[in-house]
Amino acid sequence: MAENKNIELIRGDPKVAIRKLSVPTTIAMLIVMVYNLTDSIWIAGIGANAIAATGFTAPLYMFIGGVGNAIGSGGNSLIARAIGAKDKELADNAGCHTVLITMILTVIFTIFTVGLLRPMLEIMQAGDAMEYAMTYGTISFSFTVFLLFSSVLAAIFRSEGDVKRAMYVMVGTSVINLILDPVFIYALNLGIAGAAYATALSGAIACVVMAYWIWIKKDTYLSISLKNFKFDMAILKDILNVSLPNLVENFLIALQIFAINSMLTMVAGTMAVGAYTSGKRVNMMANVPLMGIGTSVLTVSGAAFGARSLKKLRETYSYSMKIAHVIAIILASIMFFGAEYISLLFTYSPESIAMRPMLVFTIQALSFFLLAYPAGNISSMMFQSVGKGMTSLIITLFRTLIFQVALAYLFGILLGYGMLGVYIGVIGGCGLGSIMAYLLSEHYIRGLKKDSRFDSMA
Length: 458
Known about the structure:
The protein is an all-alpha fold. It has helices spanning about 1-10, 15-45, 50-85, 90-115, 115-125, 130-140, 145-160, 165-185, 190-215, 235-270, 270-305, 310-335, 340-345, 355-385, 390-415, 420-445.
């Protein structure tokens, strides 16, 4: 059966598993990013206040999405470890607990976001975009259930190595949304509400499809049902030990972006923020294959840890580091030498052409950031895979907030190097954080040799 092949894959050769799991995940992430860009273009046609409204609701939307990803990561980690240990009962029960946590958080966050939307928009000074933001936000957050469950159920599929169906759902959701956007916004004349309904409906379809596979067709490895659910505080704690630090990591990244934007405004004005924002989009696109590898590490390392195979855990980590750095070098080279051409995508209008030189410089600078990124990312995912969520959080805290912000302030503000100094801090901080992450990972893996439960030759 197909699901047995998936289980054999994540229990087998780590190199093969990383390659086969990374590609579909990367494709799905790229499609989602393309959708996000196109979605913004459709909404922009309504007017400046409409696109601003999505900007004001974006932090809340990203936070809810982060909750889904965090719970999915926690469940993925424990399920993969249970599969590696050939403990089907634990894997099933972990899946049940993951779904239960998601149900509870759905209720909490739906009430929280809808009830406090207007006060939060007032704090952010939404101004003329207030009513657009209220309409878009109220509809979007009323359907939080689809946003959370689409992320969590996809993570459950990835945890058992079924990345292709997780990819199909992510790609299908984006394509459906792209089709529904112009229909709802313009053909049905629903405006900004149409954009929100299109997103909610596409998410609902994704959830229905995955629910069909899990609970009706029942062709997954996991059996998530009431008969397999036995409340276990240890399982709950294990999932949250990865999920909660993961959620805090997303918050730290948001703080880091806020801090860097503030410093760039101080030293080079708002145009520098625009250049950095556009440059980050390019950087995020280039990061997708590296994130795809990291997501695969979460499953493959978890299975190796569950099987108590130190050899496979080491091989997963080392091989992922190697291919991630090779890919990073290739993509960084494209960014650096192709910066002039890439900048044209963001500076084609008379209003934005003045930003082009600054954007070219930003893209070239962030190409070095790409080189410093893989070690920190893969190390964080490895620690999450073995249930060390707090260690992953510490790595992210130093890599994204402490090192980058402190060095950016030192070089950009105190030493007066301006925009160049800020970028030196961002790149150098990421590099220092990655070195720290690598050393922590090596220390942890070497320490497992002393654990009698692990067979280094397994």
